[in-house]
Design goal:
- The chain is of the alpha/beta class.
- About 30% of the residues lie in helices and about 30% in strands.
- The strands form six sheets. It has a seven-stranded mixed beta sheet. The protein has a six-stranded parallel beta sheet with strand order 2-9-1-10-11-12, sandwiched between helices. A four-stranded mixed beta sheet has the order 3-6-7-8.
- Strand 24 and strand 25 form a beta hairpin.
- The longest helix is centred in the C-terminal third of the chain and has 18 residues.
């Protein structure tokens, strides 16, 4: 069986920019005509995606696949961990929910998981010319060395050339690079072919003396100094995305202000990244109920969560139940996605503790639905048709994907203003047009250009503002951002040396 060439980007720690550099490398190779695919053995994230065949994988590898011009494939991310508590995660193997494990028990199963990784990599490698691999955290975590399946173990198995990425914005960049190099087992060090300094601000000339001195200390070259960028839109790491989304919004005086609930177990926050790019949208993230009433908020979004029942109690303890009722009464729009949809209902029943502590939980009572949690996860891509409603004068097509553990059913409701769409798994879309309350299980709903603009214009009309035309093509915009990302890497690194590592 033929094997692809491989290059791997590891890091001095989490959040240094490995995912983005991998995406940039994928795009750079793809536009040179190279048949390239991304790979990450193990990903820990609450931001996930459902493939066309109903499998679940991390959004970072979906983003990287998109940079390659590929459809997402679970072989690109064979092990996905979705934290459900501080030291407990749901384990997804090859796109299928496997079990919930404590951190200690997960590491006890590292050999079995490593076999899954090997099989996925071998299969993927046989289909492509180059595999661009992403590490996780740091390869210098000496306490995890024996159970590592994602950094140097993967690099050695794939025969990958390794580049170590460091974040200079955090300070101590040369110390972090030297410390990482020194703590990596000596047998792995020959795999390290270069360093990448990321998130640099200022004059590179001032850094060059340090790079020259560093070359005399560590026998590995610095192959790139990548500048900090503000104007390229990318899917970030989980926490980084939440921190950055507010800075991308608020461009017009007649903006729509959106408050996204900042939940402890917030997931799939890329659901509102397209909203953040609209010229007439300003987004804040908050867990304070006072922001709903004291600020000029037009829309409240309850996002997805890995722990619906504990997160609704988190919001209730902060007064969100009363604040939401007042907000709706004064004419505000509320939208809930997945776990947020469940919260908007009447009750959430979790007899077996699927989502947290077993029990019957009271919802916020804004939509006439009841949710029954189960241990069967719904994973599928979906397309629905919505006939002419107040959101839009003609029928709408909405595409997205479902990832949820509960089934929501509609109570008897004779309101003519209520639009609902159900499937075999229960209600998927419920909209109270009169009160302005929308709930759905469809992730990526706002990636649909016509629906997104119709949703915003619905609110604009309620505010007495003129509606705006649908001008923003989110998919086309993302493709342009991949090219800008590739340019960023190519223009600020020794790209010929990096390409030589994969014989390109």
């Amino acid at each position: 069986m033929s094997r692809a060439k491989s290059i791997m980007f590891q890091g001095t720690g989490s959040g240094v920019g490995k995912s983005i550099v991998v995406a940039a490398m994928c795009r750079l190779l793809s536009r040179r005509g190279v048949k390239v695919a991304p790979f990450k053995a193990q990903n820990m994230a609450l931001n996930s995606f459902v493939t066309a065949d109903g499998k679940e994988m991390g959004r970072a590898q979906v983003f990287q696949a998109e940079a390659c011009g590929l459809l997402p494939d679970v072989r690109m991310n064979p092990v996905l961990l979705k934290p459900s508590a501080d030291a407990r995660s749901q384990v997804i193997l090859m796109g299928e929910p496997f079990e919930h494990l404590s951190a200690r028990d997960y590491y006890k199963r590292s050999r079995a998981h490593w076999k899954v990784v090997q099989e996925a990599y071998d299969s993927l490698s046989s289909d492509y010319d180059v595999i661009v691999i992403e590490g996780a955290g740091s390869p210098a975590e000496i306490n995890l060395r024996k159970t590592d399946i994602v950094n140097m173990t993967t690099a050695e198995y794939a025969g990958a050339s390794v580049l170590i990425v460091a974040d200079i914005d955090k300070g101590g960049v040369f110390a972090s690079l030297k410390g990482t190099f020194d703590l990596i087992e000596e047998r792995f060090r020959p795999l390290i072919k270069g360093f990448i300094i990321n998130k640099f601000r200022g004059d590179v000339g001032l850094l060059e003396p340090g790079i020259e001195m560093f070359s005399k200390i560590v026998p590995v070259p610095v192959l790139g100094v990548l500048p900090w960028f503000y104007d390229i839109h990318v899917d970030e790491e989980d926490g980084v995305f939440v921190q950055k989304i507010e800075s991308r919004t608020g461009k017009r005086r007649d903006s729509i202000r959106i408050c996204v609930a900042r939940l402890p177990r917030i997931s799939n926050f890329t659901d509102f990244s397209a909203l953040a790019l609209e010229d007439d949208v300003e987004i804040i993230l908050s867990d304070s109920s006072e922001d709903l009433l004291s600020s000029d908020i037009d829309i409240v979004i309850l996002p997805g969560t890995k722990a619906t029942t504990s997160d609704i109690e988190f919001l209730r303890a902060r007064g969100w139940d009363k604040a939401l009722r007042k907000f709706v009464k004064k004419g505000g729009m509320v939208a809930g996605i997945c776990g947020g949809f469940q919260m908007l209902g009447m009750t959430i029943s979790d007899r077996f503790g699927t989502d947290g502590a077993p029990g019957l939980y009271e919802g916020f009572g804004l939509l006439p639905i009841d949710t029954q949690m189960s241990d069967q996860k719904v994973l599928k891509q979906v397309e629905i048709q919505i006939q002419a409603i107040q959101l839009h004068e003609s029928a709408l097509t909405i595409q997205g994907y479902e990832i949820h553990m509960g089934r929501s059913t509609l109570r008897m409701d004779n309101s003519r203003s209520l639009l609902s769409i159900d499937t075999r798994e229960g209600q998927i879309f419920v909209f109270n047009q009169e009160r302005g309350i929308l709930g759905t299980y469809i992730h990526g709903i706002f990636d649909n250009d016509v629906f997104r603009r119709a949703f915003l214009n619905f609110v604009r009309k309620r505010k007495g503002l003129m509606p705006l035309p649908t001008l923003f093509n989110y998919k086309k915009y993302r493709l342009g951002q991949f090219d800008r990302l590739a340019d960023w890497l190519e223009e600020n690194s020794n790209i010929q040396e990096i390409l030589r590592l994969v014989d390109v």
